């Protein structure tokens, strides 16, 4: 029944749905999990890498967490190739704002720019939507630390903690249980690895399968982005007794 | 009235032993009237490289902002800082894009590459690259600057000696130029840090 209304993005179904957009979200639900947690003094983004192989060059660029500008980072779930296009667009948009106003772009403005682009692909052009969802973590002078989530429809929302990709529903319910409003960055990091360990497909966590990043302010009030190296992820996992090497201890 | 001497300004860069120095005057004028005495023409491009623009002030500001855009995009994409030589080529391309309606600036680039080897160069308004291993000059006092640099410069000057040399070269050249002056700003780029000093010259 849906067959007649799902092959073009630019038409509604009789129930008022855009099937192509929903199919895009379906594609994302098979991708590696990415979650973000907002703390009082920073933000954590943790993600599960889907593509793991001993042959893969570990030192090459990240697959899940990217820098958008000095103040904003993002976590990706979905088709990496689509994500690369959008990330490049976001980076250009942020620099264009800096060029025009000589100020760093506020986080929500950047999210809106990307979402406006994604929305265009659901209304005209006849091109398929982007098969990517993002979690944006950023800081600006107006609203401090913020966490946003956007999906292929172009909708976005601000969150205290959220999750995208595979098993995001169970991750979200775990986050809802354990999240407290006054959570610190240290506690948020612990919560992130705990939730990931429970929702990931594999039995034990190791630094090969994880990408981990934090955003906080340094002593001079400048935004500091820290993408954890494999050794640092191992240390963090060991700290919370969640594995850390291939021949790891069980929880 | 030449567009290149509308605002006035002088720039010079020199190579030393494992260091480079770049210096400019601080005057901003509107033809004969001095409008600001705190207008250095140099901008920090990366941790170890500086760019200066002599010529029309508005183009100097706009180009520095455009360059910041491009340098940031480069850093995000390539996950490393841009090298001085690459930066110069980027500026050269940016200028040539406006071949038939150019930016009225003559940029000077000075920096240390990742192996801490010195690099300086100057360009004309449409991006002709001119790399040198001794010194480069630009601005309304360029003729005097050439003379001063040619006499004072010698190879392998240590950072403090390079500072003295570049300061004397600049100060004495801008004193002979009515459109440049009102003090000077000098940056010495060494592998460990950038030393910045302000010179008080003739305030006229």
What does this protein look like?
The complex is a heterodimer of chains A (251) and B (204). In chain A, strand 5 and strand 6 form a beta hairpin. Helices cover 34% and strands 25% of the residues of chain A. In chain A, the strands form 3 sheets. Chain A has a 5-stranded antiparallel sheet. Chain A has 251 residues and is an alpha+beta fold. Chain A is globular and about 55 Å long. The longest helix of chain A is centred in the middle third of the chain and has 22 residues, at 80-101. Residues 246-251 of chain A have low confidence and may be disordered. Chain A has helices at 19-28, 80-101, 107-123, 168-178, 185-199, 230-239; strands spanning 34-39, 42-48, 65-67, 72-78, 132-140, 144-150, 156-158, 161-164, 205-206, 210-217, 223-227, 243-244. Chain B has helices spanning 57-78, 84-97, 142-152, 159-175; strands at residues 10-15, 20-25, 28-30, 33-36, 42-46, 49-55, 105-112, 118-123, 129-132, 135-139, 184-189, 194-199. The two termini of chain B are 21 Å apart. With 204 residues, chain B is an alpha+beta fold. Chain B is built from 4 helices and 12 strands, in the order E-E-E-E-E-E-H-H-E-E-E-E-H-H-E-E. The interface between A and B is small, with 13 and 9 residues.
Low-confidence regions of chain B = none
Order of helices and strands of chain A: HEEEEHHEEEEHHEEEHE
Let me know the number of strands of chain B. 12
Report low-confidence residues of chain A grouped into runs of 5 or more.
246-251
The quaternary organization reads as: heterodimer
In spatial order, strands of the major sheet of chain B run 10-1-2-11-12
- Overall shape of chain A: it is globular
Q: Give the percentage of residues in beta strands of chain B.
A: 25-35%
Distance between the termini of chain A: 47 Å
- Overall morphology of chain B: globular
Mean of residue pLDDT values of chain B: 96
Protein traits:
heterodimer; A: 251 residues; alpha+beta; five-stranded antiparallel beta sheet; 6 helices; 12 strands; 34% helix; 25% strand; globular; disordered C terminus; B: 204 residues
